[in-house]
Amino acid sequence: MDRGEEAMKQILLKDIFEKSVLTIIAIVLVAISIFWEYFPMAAVRIILLGFGIIMILLIWLWSQKEWRWQSDFANSICEALDTLMDDQELKNYQPYEDSMVSKIQGKLLQYHEKMQEGQWQSIQDKQTIQELVSDISHQVKTPIANIRMFTGILQQHSLSSERRTEFLNTMTIQMNKLDFLMQSLIKMSRLETGTFVLHIGNLSLYDTIAQSINGIWAKADSKKIQIDVECDSHIMAEHDAKWTAEALGNILDNAVKYTPTGGEIHVRVLPWQFYVRIDIEDNGIGIPKKHYHDVFKRFYRAQEVVQEEGVGLGLYLSRCIITHEKGYITVKSEVGKGTVFSVFLPASGEGINQWKS
Predict the structure, then answer these.
(1) Which residues contact 80 (CB under 8 A, 6 or more apart)?
(2) Are 198 and 324 within 8 A, CB to CB?
(3) How large is the greatest C-alpha to C-alpha distance in the chain, in angstroms?
(4) Beta-bridge mates of residue 275
(5) How far is 255 from 289, CA to CA, in rounded Å?
(6) Cα–Cα distance for residue pair 141/148, rounded to 1 Å
(7) Which residues, in sequence order, are bridge partners of residue 270?
(8) Measured distance CA(163)–CA(155) in Å, rounded
(9) 160: buried, middle or exposed (CB in 10 Å: 19+, 13-18, 0-12)?
(10) What is the Cα–Cα distance from 330 to 129, expressed in whole angstroms?
């Protein structure tokens, strides 16, 4: 029960108590004046009778006044509700007035504002879903159209074995892209709806980073990109090994993708007091400062990299994963010189103490 309900209850109890006491006094006085035959003077009995009648009349007048006040109170609250339901401003609302009507109007106004926030959030959610469906449709349309086109060519034309192999390889690439998109969308859906389970523990970051690098090693090797890792095997952090490797792998994949042939990628792990910092630095094309926030948006891809393979979900998924682990990601970059993504994970006190020792 809140303070408003408690105050209303106390007022009603006090009102009932006062009326009951006065009514009992009036009845006693009338009864005494009528039935107490031992009074020596009739004048006293008449006075008592008159006083009792006056008391009953006053109680009746008081009840009428209370009834009118309650009626006006109910009308004012109903009027306030009608005004708020019509999305209009309360006319007679006095926020600093210490009255029951003003207090209840204030509570109704707070409730109305919360309802409006909920409606606004619902509208935003619907808009987000519409944008998501539109983005998915756009992303899926291209590989499906390419697969359909090459399938038609293979069915209707007599092609050499070399040409047929080329088209089949192209179709395989498009199907792999479509599969990657679907897998990314499934992961995104699980992260946003909270239907996945994190198994967070005090785990070694050395093993997690090794797992993430294994996923991009072949791509880096094909571009002659050197990957250096500085991570003490004793450094621990609170994280889920599988999902964190996924997050770090997405950042590393971007680093490999946008670093020229023969480039370098450095991974450094630095223990802080409350977090463990993982720096992933490359000497690639860089990111303009005005797009630092944009790179973490869903399906975002800069104009200068649209020709590269990808759908713009990697960094978005990485941020979602790290955020669910109570960490965060920052980025610093210089166009033409490279980028540093810093991942901060909650530190394990035991792991830091071991590293320091």
Answers:
(1) 90, 93, 104, 105, 108
(2) yes
(3) 137
(4) 346
(5) 17
(6) 11
(7) 277
(8) 13
(9) exposed
(10) 27
Alpha carbon distance 80, 108 (integer Å) = 8
Q: Three-state SS across 296-307? A: HCCCCCCHHHCC
Helix (H, G, I), strand (E, B) or coil at 239: strand
Q: What tokens appear for 119 in the block?
A: 């409606």
Q: Is the pTM of this model over 0.85?
A: no
Query: SS3 for 171?
Result: helix
Place of tokens 């800069």: 302
Contact indicator for 250, 315 with CB cutoff of 8 Å: yes
Query: Amino acid identity of 46?
Result: I
Give the distance, in angstroms, between the CA of residue 320 and the centroid of all CA atoms in the same chain: 12
User: How far is residue 17's CA from residue 30's CA, in Å, rounded to a whole number?
Assistant: 20
**CB neighbour burial string for 288-323, b if at least 16 within 10 angstroms, e if fewer:** eeeeeeebbebbebeeeeeeeebbbbbbbbbbbbbe
Q: The tokens 């996945």 sit on which residue?
A: 196
Looking from the CA of 97 toward its CB, the CA atoms found within 13 Å total 10
Give pLDDT tens digits along the chain (357 positions): 445 455 555 555 556 656 666 666 666 656 655 555 555 555 555 666 666 666 667 667 777 777 777 777 677 777 777 777 777 776 666 655 566 666 676 777 777 777 777 777 777 767 766 766 676 677 678 788 888 888 888 887 778 888 888 888 888 888 887 887 777 777 777 776 666 778 899 999 999 999 999 989 999 999 999 999 999 988 999 999 999 999 999 999 999 988 999 999 999 999 988 899 999 999 999 999 888 888 888 777 666 655 556 667 889 889 989 999 999 999 999 998 999 999 999 987 544 444 443
- Residue-wise DSSP of 22-48: HHHHHHHHHHHHHH-TT-S-HHHHHHH
CA distance 296 to 322: 12
